[in-house]
Amino acid sequence: xxxxxxxxxxxxxxxxxxxxxxxxxxxxxxxxxxxxxxxxxxxxxxxxxxxxxxxxxxxxxxxxxxxxxxxxxxxxxxxxxxxxxxxxxxxxxxxxxxxxxxxxxxxxxxxxxxxxxxxxxxxxxxxxxxxxxxxxxxxxxxxxxxxxxxxxxxxxxxxxxxxxxxxxxxxxxxxxxxxxxxxxxxxxxxxxxxxxxxxxxxxxxxxxxxxxxxxxxxxxxxxxxxxxxxx
Length: 231
Description:
This is ComF family protein. InterPro entries: ComF/GntX_DNA_util-trans, PRTase-like, PRTase_dom. The protein is of the alpha/beta class and about 230 residues long. It has two domains: about 1-40, no CATH class; about 40-230, Rossmann fold (3-Layer(aba) Sandwich), CATH 3.40.50. It is about 40% helix and about 15% strand. It is built from nine helices and seven strands, in the order H-H-H-E-H-H-E-H-H-E-E-H-E-E-H-E. It is globular, with a radius of gyration of 18 Å.
């Protein structure tokens, strides 16, 4: 009883609001109002996972398997706003909720029992300390919860890299070359893995991580992001 009273008090003093439109949320709503959740720019890459514009984007950078993204990215659109809230407005719960929503889409499309674990792209320890959480790991948590598999934090980032935002495709690949590694004693041999990040633009970061997993004996490495952006 006290817990519910405390929650009601917090909601009164600090009302929860929709991450998209800012309206107050009802108790049954998580991070989005019902209206905004229903109008998220959901993509359909999962319907052609082995042959879509994302698989074409990473061709030649890594061994291509399934490549998926939950939302279509558009500048000044809902997807960009959500990513900004997740990364820079201290809303880790938003990443987890997006993971849960996408996992339900995948299950509806027949993706049960496809993967053994979800692997988030890691942040450098300094950036993790500064932000307080890894947005890709939060997305992974939501996916894993609904897909009923584990989150496997098996990668580490060994170099602090510059921001990728204004770099070309070649510069991005050079920027993440030999950045990621599998710690000693960790094995991914024979595992079917879903490697996740917040957004895919050129695919450099995801492909660098995927190459480490493939080289370490993973049976399959699929890629998934919250949103898919342009070049």
